[in-house]
Sulfite dehydrogenase (Spirosoma agri), 858 residues
Amino acid sequence: MSFFDKQQNLKPERDENQSTHPPKLTRRTLLGGAATVAVAVVQTSWTKGVQIGIPEQPDDPTRRMGIPPGEVGTRSPFEKVVRKASDISSRTPLQDLHGTITPSDLHFERHHNGVPAINPATYELLIHGQVERPTVFSLADLKRFPSVSRIAFLECSGNFRTGKETMSPQEICGLTSQSEWTGVRLSTLFREVGVKPDSADGRPGWFLAEGGDAAVMSRSIPLRKGWDDAIIAYAQNGEALRPEQGYPVRLFLPGWEGNTSVKWLRRLEIGDQPWQTREETSKYTEGIKGGKIRQFSFDIDARSIITFPAYPVQVERGWIEIRGLAWSGRGKVVLVEVSTDAGKRWQRADLQEPVLDKAHVRFRHLWQWNGAETEIMSRVTDETGYTQPTFAQLIDARGADTGGYHFNPITAWQIKPDGRVLNRPENWR
Amino acid sequence: MSFFDKQQNLKPERDENQSTHPPKLTRRTLLGGAATVAVAVVQTSWTKGVQIGIPEQPDDPTRRMGIPPGEVGTRSPFEKVVRKASDISSRTPLQDLHGTITPSDLHFERHHNGVPAINPATYELLIHGQVERPTVFSLADLKRFPSVSRIAFLECSGNFRTGKETMSPQEICGLTSQSEWTGVRLSTLFREVGVKPDSADGRPGWFLAEGGDAAVMSRSIPLRKGWDDAIIAYAQNGEALRPEQGYPVRLFLPGWEGNTSVKWLRRLEIGDQPWQTREETSKYTEGIKGGKIRQFSFDIDARSIITFPAYPVQVERGWIEIRGLAWSGRGKVVLVEVSTDAGKRWQRADLQEPVLDKAHVRFRHLWQWNGAETEIMSRVTDETGYTQPTFAQLIDARGADTGGYHFNPITAWQIKPDGRVLNRPENWR
C-alpha cells in the first residue's frame, strides 16, 4: 500500500523540516536541489550555558572534513527540545519524544525545596527503628550489594493541567518520564538490617523515607512495598543518578506516585504505623464524595495520552500515524483504544513490544484524515481490568472537590478543518 | 543472609566514595559524622566546554535552599564519566555504566571522515535503482510513515584491543553501545518505491547504502536484511539522533557490524549484486585459514565481558557481585556462564529480564573472594547454539592472519592478592 499519493510525495509539508523536491529525481538534481537552499537561521545549542552557533552548511557536506569525536556527544544545534520549568518543577516535552525512554536531562523534576548539593564521599543512608541491626550504609556499601535494573515510569500524582485549547502534552501531563533504574532491592537491605516481615504485634509495618533536601521530604510507606519491588537506586539510564533525580541515591517505588520515591534519601525508619507527615496530610490527598479525604493513595492509575498529532502541530489530510504513551502503576497495559470520531467508536491501537510492567508503552494507530473537523482521543485498560475514566466520571467519583491529585482523564484533541490540533478544555477549573 | 559481616559494615572500603561511619548509629551522630568531613576537591563538570566548580558542601544540606529546575538537567560535577576519544573513534566507558542503556552522549563513535554538518530542512533521502517509483524523501516524509521502536546494541566489528594488563573494558571493547532506536521500517519504504522481493532474474537482490559524510561511507547490503528488520532511524533514546550518530537519519541494521548501519544516510540504490566498495574490499574483511579473505561478514558474533570487577578497580575479599554485558547479533542470549577459577569450572549467571533480541543483556553472578590470586571470565551462548570462543580457538579458525575484525574472544581478568584487577593479555599482537 502507499501512504502518500505521488503528488503528496513531491509536495512540501507544513513542517519545520519542510523541503522542496526537485522535479527530476536524479542524484544530480538531488544535490543541486539541496545546494540551492541557503541557511540563515542561527540558534543556540542546548548544552547548558554554552552558545554554539549553527555551523555553516556546506553546499555538499561530502566535500568538507567533519568534526572528530570528543569525550561526550552533543545535541544537534537544530534540535530545540527542552523542559518547561517553574521554580518547583520542570515538564518532559512528551510531544517531542519518540519511543519510551526519556533522556535523563529531560526527565521531569518536582522539588519541594530545590536540588541539594550532596557529596557522594560523605553520603550515608541510615536504616533504623524496628530492626535487629541499625546500620549506616555508604554509597560504596550500597553498590556492593546484589543489584537490579528495571525500566519503569515515574509520574507525579499532581500531573494534570487543562483550561485552554493551546496546551501541549508537556503542559497537560509532562510530569511523567521513563528511565532504566539500577540499584539494590530494598528487600535485600531489609534482610541485612533484620526487618521482620511485619511488626511485633502483627500489624502491617510501615517505614519512613526521609530525604536530605531542604524540605526534608518525608513519606510513610507500607513495609510490603519495600519487600515487593522497591529499589534503592543509584543509577538511571546507564549512568549515575542526575542531581535533580536524587543524586547520589533515591528511593524508587515502581508504579507509585512520584513523591514517594524520595530523592536524596538519607534515612529509613521502620515502625508499625504511618508518621502522618506534612506530605501525606496537608499535601498528596484527594477529596472524594461526601467531603471525605482520601489519604495514602499510592498507586498511579492507568493513563494514556496521544502525543502526535497534538498541539502545537498542524496536520494535512491523508494518512496520519497517531502516536502516544500509555501506562499503569498497577501492572501491564493490556489494551489501548483510539477514537477518531469524538468517542463514538474505538479501535485497538498497536502496542510496541516489549510491553513492560509499570512502564510507559508506545502505542500507534494509523488513521486517514479526510479533512473534516473531529476529535481524537485514547483510553487504556490495564491487567487489573481498570479502564482510564472520562473527566465526568472522575468528577462524579470525587464529588465537588476534584482535589487535583491522581486525575487521569481521557484527553481529547480537536482537529480543526485547517489542520490545527487543539486541546479540548471541556474541563475548565 | 548477610553479605557483609558487621565489621565490614563499619569499615571504610578502598573506594573513591570511601566514608567513615560513626561508631554509634544514632541520627545525631550520623549528621555529626557527616559534618566533620570537609570537602577540598574541585573538578570540572562534563558539560562540554563549561567549567563548573563543585558547589561548596553545606554541613547540613537540609539547611540550605536547593537549586531550582532548569530547561535541561546536568550531570553531577562529582561524576567523571567520559569516552576515550581519538581522531576517528570514541569508546563507551562500559566499566562505569549500569544496566543496559547507553546515554546518547556516551554512545561510541567511529567515523571515516568526521561528523558532517547536515541541515534537517534540506535533508533528502533518495531511493532509486531497480525500483518502480524512484523517490526522494524529506525528513518530514520519513516521520509521517508508520514508525517502530527497538532497543538494540550497535557494535563496531573492529571492537577488540589487548596487549597490556592495564586495560579497562572501555579500552578492550568500548566500541559497543545500546539505545532505543525509532524510525520507519525499511521494508515500508521498499513497498512505497516498489522494490520487488528479489531482482528480475531471481538472483538475491542487494542495495547500496551511501552516507552524506566526507568519506561518502558506502556499503552493499542484501535486500533480505532490508525486508527483515532494517530501520531508517531518526531518533535514539527518545530524542532526535545525535550528530555523531547520523543526524538527521541513519540506517540501523540490528545485530550487524556497525559500519553497515550507515550514518547521515542520503542514498539507497537497489541492484542485483554488491558494489564492491572500499569498505567491503580493502576494509571490513577478515583473513581465514589458507590465506583466504572472508568478505561480507555482517553478523556480530555472540560476546560477553565482565565490566565489574575490571581494571582499574581494586577489590576487597568477601562478597563481590560480578557484573557484565552479553550480546549476540544472531538473536537472543540464552546462557551466560562465569568462571572464578581461571576457566576450570563454570557457573550460570543471572540474566536481567527482559532479555531482548540482538540486545545487550546485563548478567550478574555473586562470588565470595577468599583473597587468593585467580582469574575470572565470562562466556555467552546465543539461541543459535553458538558459544563465545577462546582466543586460541579464534586464532586457529583465522590462521596466521587474525584480521582484526569480528574478534570476540573470552576476556579474562586477573585478580591479584592485593585486590588489583588486571586484563590477562594472553593475546599480545
Chain A touches chain B through 138 residues (CB under 8 Å). Confidence is low (pLDDT under 50) at residues 1-51 of chain A.
